[in-house]
Every structure is written in structure tokens, then in C-alpha cells.
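User: Reviewer 2 asked us to show a designed sequence for the structure in our supplementary figure. I'm pasting the C-alpha cells here. Could you produce the per-position amino acids so we can include them in the response letter?
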């Protein structure tokens, strides 16, 4: 099993999206790479803590490669906007890939370079070592499963793109 931390805007929708990828074995939402210890949701939203709303993704790398996981992640974000995804704005909604092993960085850098070739504007997804991560409050975990009509910046068309991409891959490995 491997773990990567992905920031893709509001973590409610990002978690729901990432949990649907075959090979992802566990997801958890939290706050990453900020300046304060043990922030609350209120702190992250209102007190300029520097944390990004992040999904901790555990995945089986014999089923799903990091490259494939990142390619699928990119389908759910606008990688060219700074501190915004959908209608959500603020530093906590920035996009990022936070890694824990130095062997992951070359894979991430190659993936971002490939992504950049698809855009005329600069890709602004952070690729940084994980400095810190704090699990979000329980009511945020699997939020959209608990609240099926809850807010999600990731629309149905994005989930449809995920289904189509998975069909095209045959499997998510690569």
C-alpha cells in the first residue's frame, strides 16, 4: 500500500471522487502543509493557517500506479487556477500533490510536465513534500455519503469523465 495526499479544492467532493477510483483502498479528509498545529475547519477557513483541504489517499500500487492516479485526479481539477476550484476561493482550495517519499517526486514531476503540455496557461498544482497533515473533524469524513444532497464543486460531468477514463484504461494500472 502507498499513500499520497491530494488537494483538489473542497475536500468533500475530492474525497468522493477519489474514493471511486479502483485501487484506492481508503480516503480521509484533512488539512495539509499549513503553519499551525491541529487546526479546526473554522481556523482553516477564517484564520489564514496556510493549510490546504486535502484528501489522504491510500492505494494499492499493484492495482493503481501513481501516474494513473494522478491522471485521474487531474480530470477533477482545474490545474491552472490559483487558490480556487469551482466557486470556492481561498488558499485552502489550492491544488497540490504532497508526497512522503523522495522516489515519488520524479513520477509527480513527469506527470505534471505531461499535464502542462495539455494547457496554454501555466499549471499551478503544487508538488511539495508533506510537511504536516491533520485529520479533519469527523463530520467532514465521507461527507457526501452522509449528506447525498450536500454541496460538491465537482459536477456529475466530472464523475462521468472518470467513468469514461476508467473504461478506456481497461484497468487503472499503468
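Assistant: Here is a per-position design you can include in the supplement:
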Amino acid at each position: 500500500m502507498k499513500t499520497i495526499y491530494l488537494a483538489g479544492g473542497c475536500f468533500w467532493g475530492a474525497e468522493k471522487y477519489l474514493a471511486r477510483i479502483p485501487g484506492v483502498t481508503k480516503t480521509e479528509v484533512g488539512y495539509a502543509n499549513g503553519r499551525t498545529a491541529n487546526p479546526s475547519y473554522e481556523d482553516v477557513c477564517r484564520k489564514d493557517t496556510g493549510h490546504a483541504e486535502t484528501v489522504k489517499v491510500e492505494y494499492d500500487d499493484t492495482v493503481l500506479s501513481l501516474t494513473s492516479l494522478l491522471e485521474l485526479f487531474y480530470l477533477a481539477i482545474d490545474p491552472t487556477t490559483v487558490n480556487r476550484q469551482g466557486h470556492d476561493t481561498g488558499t485552502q482550495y489550492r491544488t497540490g500533490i504532497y508526497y512522503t517519499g523522495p522516489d515519488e517526486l520524479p513520477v509527480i514531476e513527469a506527470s505534471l510536465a505531461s499535464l502542462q503540455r495539455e494547457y496554454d496557461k501555466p499549471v499551478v498544482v503544487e508538488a511539495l513534500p508533506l510537511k504536516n497533515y491533520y485529520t479533519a473533524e469527523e463530520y467532514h469524513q465521507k461527507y457526501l455519503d452522509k449528506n447525498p444532497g450536500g454541496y460538491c464543486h465537482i459536477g456529475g460531468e466530472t464523475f462521468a469523465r472518470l467513468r469514461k477514463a476508467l473504461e478506456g484504461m481497461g484497468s487503472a494500472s499503468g
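For the response letter, you might also mention the following. The chain is about 30% helix and 25% strand. The chain has one domain: 2-169.
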